[in-house]
Structures are given as structure tokens and as C-alpha cells.
Amino acid sequence: MAGPIHPKLLPITTTFSDEGRTFVGGRDVCEIAEEFGTPLFLYDEHHLRQRCRDALWAFGSGVAYGSKAFLCLAMAKLVDEEGLHIDVASAGEAYTALRAGVPAARLVMHGNNKSTAELTYALERGIGRIVVDSVDELERLARLGGFGHPKPKVLLRVTPGVKAHTHEFMATGHEDQKFGLSIEGGAATDAVLRCRGEGSGVELVGIHCHIGSQIFDAESYAKTIAIVAPFFIPLGLPELVVGGGLGAPYVEEEVDGVPTFAEWAAAINRAVKEAGISGVVRLGVEPGRSIAANAAMTVYRVGTIKTLPEIRTYVSIDGGMSDNPRPALYGSGYEAFLPRNGTAERSRPVRIVGKHCETGDVLINEAWVPDDIHVGDLLATPATGAYGYTMANNYNKLPRPAVVFVHDSTARVVVRRETYDDLLRLDSL
Ligand code: LLP
């Protein structure tokens, strides 16, 4: 038995009518779904902007939005308008931001295996920072240095040896992994010497680390800073970036466990001070999920309900592991509610599954929904704004959903729904 869906999982502007109908940005969610079809990623634009502002307020100008969480032209433009830099993890993400009109100098390029083509792209466009992840990458940059581009400003990504409490696929601070240069093993020091050597073709401006994603304990960052500081301070560099990873609530048990941006900033600032890092060092963070996750919900249509006596009830929706592979990949939990009555008690236990030809296509293993759920209902899963659309795929040739932004009672499509022709646009006979 569960109560109504928790408001802290929902976009900031969510309200309910007396009958419980759900509104986001002043628009009826059911009406939007009827207008634009399902499945649908529905974003509250105000929520996105507010989270950007909160992050800037807490940290100042060193905030770069981790665009892998959610990126399209409209999102890149919004983030740029709000004054955040943008962290891109490939030339494709960089291309998207540049096409949205974001100045190249506002971009930070990441990646553990940037190709020569991607590095050339970054140098030609004048991307603001490159976060170097390996000695091979430094060699590539040194070779490219001879081709007349201005020297790129780089940070070195180091592994602090911190094990963050999160899913093992999302932890990136420990030693045994593909990212970064080990402080303990000496690779980080080697890389610094190379950057500072003759003909490196780069200007080393800072150190970067990122301990993982969906982290609820701000102290993990304090620990990281304490470890990185003895390496960082003697280098006398002007920039220190501690990555992204602040968690977002997906299920009711998580709503009170998430630090605010202000709490996250306080833990970081305190640790920086305690570690003796100079006040003139420019501190950077890269929040992705914590900006975008709760700004959106996915709205589906219920197509089939099967009750297996003495086993369970299966509710099938018109999407699944193609629009949200996170439950299958990480075992991530979500909640569900019916936007036609968002204030209803959820007294019926069901398993919510997708329409793919896989038993593992489970969206919510044990969901609670209102008793009167029926075929044809619209069903929404909150907190799908991060790593939702960006991880969506076309498994079983399902067209990817549309993405709609709602703001001031206006809903607009920012990424249109794929058509069957789109599915074949790369094919030839
Ligand atoms: N900075 C770096 C270097 C990163 O690798 C990431 C995320 C971020 C920032 C942003 O992290 P956030 O604040 O969003 O946690 N697909 C997984 C998450 C992978 C995160 C990858 N890197 C998921 O669906 O949970």
C-alpha cells in the first residue's frame, strides 16, 4: 500500500486539481499526452531553469552541466541562457551544443578515449577546456599542436582512489577502472610532467576528478578533496573540478536523503578550506542528473493488464527498456502514478512491464498503483529527466518518444517523435 505519489519526485510546478488531475507548467498532463502521443518525455522548463540557478547560486561560475544526462538543442540553449558551462563527452555532444549556439569556449570536453578526429574538432572549434584522461591522449594533442591551433587549456583527470557508494557501473573514483590517471600509481605525476615539457602542445590549467554518479553523501566529495589536495596544491594550478554525481530521488524512500546544491557546495567548500587549497583556486562541479532528473516524467499508455491468480498482475505500457533501459541495466527503481488522479492512494501492487520481446523488460518490479487502473489509462513515471532520453534506443524498432517542454501553460515539442522512416534513414538495400 502506498500513498499518493510524493511531490518531491515531481517537477517543481506540478499541481493537482480538486479531482486530482495532474498539471505541470500550468498544463493538464493528460491533455498533453493526448495531444503529443505516448510514450512522451514531459519536461518542466521552469524546473530545469531553477535547478541551473540553484547550482550557480551555490557554486558560482564554475558549474558545467553534465549534458550526457539530457541533451538536445533546446536543452543546450536553456543551459547556456542560464549561464552554465556545458560538459560534453564526445564530439557529437559538442556538435549539439554548438548547433544550439553555445559558444565553444563554454564547453568542456571529456572522454577516456577521445579520437584524433574528436580532438581536432575540439581544437578547431576552440573548445574551452579539454579534460585529458590518458597519456595517449596527451601524445595525440602534442602531435596536433604542430597544426597551428591555439594551445588548448587542459585539465588532467585523476583517480583519487575513493570508492563511492553507488552502483558499481556508476562508481568512477576507485583505482581499478578505465577512467583517469592514478595519483597513487604515479601516472598523474607523469602526465603533469608531460604537459609541462617541451612541445606538449597544451596549457595545463587544472586537475579534475569525478567519483561517480547518484551519490547521496556529500562527505564523499570532502573525502576526495582531502585525498587530491596534497597532489593538487604543489602544482600551483588555478582550477580544480570535482566532477558531478550528486544524486536525485527516484523513489519515495530517497526524497529526504538528497543533499541540496547548497549542502553539496558547503561540504566541498569546507573540505577545500580544511585541505589548505588557496581561496583563489577556481572550483568546478559538473552536475547532470541533479539538474535534469526530476524535471521530467515519462507518460505511457496502459495497453494490457494481465492478472495471474495468486502470482501477480502485469501492467504493460507502450514503451519499456527502449525508452528507459535503467531498470534493466542498473536495477534502478521508479514509481508510477496515474496523472488523471495524482492524489489517489496507490493500493494495488503490480509489475509494470514494457512491450519488448524480453522477460527482463521490466520498468517497475513492484509498483503501487491506484486500484481502478484500467486499459487505456495514462501512466507516468517521475524522475526520468536524466539518462532517460539520452539512453533511449530503438530496440525492436520502436521509434523513440517525443520530448515536450512545458512552460507558462504552453507545451512545445523540442524533439519530435521518431517515425518509421526515421528508423530506416541509415539503411540501404
Ligand atoms: N562529469 C563526469 C566526468 C561524468 O562522467 C558524469 C557522468 C558527470 C559529470 C555527470 O554526473 P551526474 O551529475 O549526472 O551524476 N547512465 C548512468 C549514469 C552515468 C554517469 C556518467 N557520467 C545512469 O543512468 O544512472
Tell me what the structure shows.
Helix content is 26%, strand content 23%. The chain starts with 14 loop residues before the first strand and ends in a 6-residue tail after the last helix. It contains 12 helices and 20 strands. The strands form 3 sheets. Strands 5, 6, 7, 8, 9, 10, 11, 12 and 13 form a 9-stranded parallel sheet that branches. The longest helix is centred in the N-terminal third of the chain and has 15 residues, at 45-59. Strand 6, helix 4 (91-99) and strand 7 (107-109) form a beta-alpha-beta unit. With 429 residues, the chain is of the alpha/beta class. It has helices at 29-36, 45-59, 73-81, 91-99, 116-125, 135-144, 187-196, 219-232, 261-274, 289-292, 326-330, 420-423, and strands at 15-16, 22-24, 27-28, 40-44, 64-66, 85-88, 107-109, 129-132, 153-159, 181-182, 203-208, 239-241, 282-284, 296-308, 312-317, 348-353, 362-369, 378-382, 402-407, 410-415. The model has no long low-confidence stretch (mean pLDDT 96). Helix 2 (45-59) runs parallel beside helix 9 and helix 8 packs parallel to helix 9. It folds into 2 domains: 7-44 and 294-423, Beta Barrel (Lyase, Ornithine Decarboxylase, Chain A, domain 1); 45-289, TIM Barrel, CATH 3.20.20.10. Bound molecules: ligand LLP. Ligand LLP binds at residues 66, 68-69, 87, 110, 170, 210, 213-214, 243-246, 286-290, 326, 386-387.
